[in-house]
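Good morning N.,

You mentioned wanting to compare the apo and holo forms, so I went ahead and generated the holo version with fructose -6-phosphate. This is what I fed in:
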Amino acid sequence: MCGIIGYIGYRDAIPVLVNGLEKLEYRGYDSAGIACLPHQKERFFVIKEKGKLSALKEKLGDFSVEAHLGIGHTRWATHGEPSRVNAHPHIDAAGKIALVHNGIIENYATLKNILQKKGMRFLSQTDTEVGANLIGLHYHKTPKLFDAVQRAVSELHGFFSLVLFTKEDPETLIAYKRSNPLVIGLGQRENFIASDVTALLPYTREVIYLEDEDLAVITAKEVSIYSLKTRSWVKRRSSTVNWDVAQAQKQGFPHFMLKEMYEQPDVLKTILNKRIQKNGEIFFDTLSKKFQTQLKNIERVSMISCGTAYHAGLVGSIAIEKYAKISCRTQVSSEFRYGDSLLNKKDLVVLITQSGETADTLAALREAKAKGAATLAIVNVVGSTIAREADAVIYTHAGPEIGVASTKAYTAQLATLLLLAFYMAKIRRTIADADFKKLIKEIKKIPQHCAKILKEIKKFETCAQKHYTRRNFLYLGRGCNYPTALEGALKLKEISYAHAHGYAAGEMKHGPIALIDHEQPVICIASNSFTIDKMISNIQEIRARDGIVIAIGTEGHRELEKMADDFFSVPAVPEILSPILTVIPLQFFAYKIAVLNGRDVDQPRNLAKSVTVE
Ligand code: F6R
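and this is what came out, ligand included:
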């Protein structure tokens, strides 16, 4: 939530900042802004606009400013409505410091009161301006911005990151991280800082991930990091990012979401190639011997995550219980972190997250560690906070996901969790060799099944056209496709703004059946399963009440095809693998409905890709 970028070096700063903000816009798009120090000038150049980055770009078109130092921000509003005055960067009351901020300063109201009593005037309703003014106050007392920031952050409560500079020192950017991510991009005679690596990729692949309580001093020539935790200057190792720049571009697709849906066969192929060895065994390169032994001995598993990742956890949990024979529960992070979990060192807690930065999931990880459980992160973004803080990490290798609605990251999570379940079954000897081999053989075919579905997906377009004006949808599924029903409904509501509800089909008679009429489509996920007859009975009950049935079923299921108003088929696979396939038509259905309604598919209202505030 909120994207930050900073630049210092020989290039024209404004294009670097704007390009960076383009990559970061998925983190929030309520407003955007830039502050820089024009060459040989003593005044800041600040430009901000409400709404998307395009509005800022349009406004920038009229200006020509030469600057080599600057900061930029794209906002997801927390304190204060989306408006130009609340947009970042904020300048302190003395007009000396420009600052951008991601996160929440929890004690801003108290501090604002104190500062107002000292005669300070505030222009915005943001917590950010309080931060800028507090730093400004300390800067008035000490000649060094570094010292001022150090003093100010010790008085600020909450979780946030800051990037700032003063017009009195055009050679230095200062950055501070407490929980919310910041990554430094290392260049030749230039350096960068951003909320995530995608903004840095056009310029450098050498990066340093800041750690909590790091205070960085960044000049064009060097980067120095002081840890407020250890009260010492520290060396943080740099790493090389191997994400492809092209992956973070639309490559001719009208939307990132559509492009990312079409990337799924390749992502799955990458995962399977990495994880399944020539001898058919599953291998996770990042799990130490010690952690593998822990996996053998744990007595319970908890899957903790949010949103789409939570749905992946539900499937993973079914697979772990079915194959590894360990009791496994699934919980959303926000509930887990404030619950009274009875974890101990015999527990494994699996944190599933695309971004690796979700505030609630991070808090859950810390809670699980404090209770002595073994923690395993299933993460897409390499080097993210959760990936670094967990005892062990397995990356999902989906590549950058820019569309706010998760697609390829979800199927990558599913594939990874299924492999983890099969792996745990193998090392705990709870699966027969022949069954294991069969699952491996079948999962290896998943990328080609996925490609086939995507090839035929256009057939499903007429169904979306028929129903795109409807405002209510019900999604039903059973077993490992109950999470698919939840995920299908989430995809539709988040990008089309229609009301969609996912339900366990067996629960239909306990309430939702009252909703069935000739207006509300019911999307039934009815691929081959030992409960297929139950699902067919549910469909009959819907039809008997004049309901509209859209069925996702297995190829060749004539009875289902005849019964449904619309039918989309997926290839036959063992049931536990089917959620990877059945979700694809649902992603496409949601996408089409959103497009037909003229929605902003990649940047739906009120949402942000990375939820770094709770
Ligand atoms: C929905 C979606 C969200 C995320 C959720 C968790 O399409 O993307 O529900 O799944 O915010 O985010 P991560 O996986 O980054 O922890």
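DSSP finds 20 helices and 25 strands in the chain.

Happy to go through it together on a call whenever suits you.

Best,
F.
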